[in-house]
Amino acid sequence: MADKAEEMKIDVILASGSPRRSELLAREGVPFSVRASQVDETLDADLLSQPEEAAKKLAERKARAVVEDVLNEGYAGMAMVVGADTMVVADSTIYGKPADEADAKRILNELSGRAHQVITGVSVWLVGAPEGEDVSLAFRSFAETSHVLFKALDDELIERYIATDEPWGKAGAYGVQGLGGEMLVERVSGDFDNVVGLPVKRLIAEFSEFFEAAK
User: Fold this and answer.
1) At CB < 8 A and 24+ separation, what contacts does 16-20 make?
2) H or E element in which residue 62 lies
3) pLDDT, one tens digit for every residue, the chain (215 residues)
4) d(CA 211, CA 12)
5) Model-level pTM?
6) Catalytic (active-site) positions
7) Cβ contact 117:54 at 8 Å
């Protein structure tokens, strides 16, 4: 599909409703549209023991769901659909988004004073439908891992942080780019953008010809 990328403008579609991922992609000057995907995020037991594979699998589900949606709508053209899933992992335990205040407290207490990994799976689907038919599909996925060390957190600090409402909708119940970075985080090693939710520089580097065709 690389030859086709040179012949036709590519529509970039971010398969995520995350404002943080949109901000990262926009920061790089990439024109794109957003199509939030609703998928089952349940994981089989074998994937729960392989966080990188789990993150890639969920990213693939999100991207594939959007691909199916746009094709069902009769899309014609060339598109690159980007799905992503971020998870926090400590000692083989995967921490997703907190369900409620009690869950957020539990997660932050368990991460207190410890190092953990932030893994973002990225799945890029290339859709070729130049005439709205004869559809061709290809996809490739990767995972990026960063390391985060939390400060020792007491109950008062955790409660103050939860009161900011920042934990909601975020894996590990915190946002590194916001107050969480100031109040909770001691150190980040690796790609900071990856902890925010999308290793955008690696994404653009690995699919540079397609992003160039999107401009």
Assistant:
1) 16/62, 16/82, 16/83, 16/84, 18/84, 18/169, 18/197, 20/175, 20/177, 20/196, 20/197, 20/198
2) helix 51-72
3) 444 444 568 999 999 999 999 999 999 998 999 999 888 777 777 777 799 999 999 999 999 999 999 999 999 999 999 999 999 999 989 998 999 999 999 999 999 999 999 999 999 999 998 876 689 999 999 999 999 999 999 999 999 999 999 999 999 999 999 999 999 999 999 999 999 999 999 999 999 999 988 87
4) 8
5) 0.90
6) 85
7) no
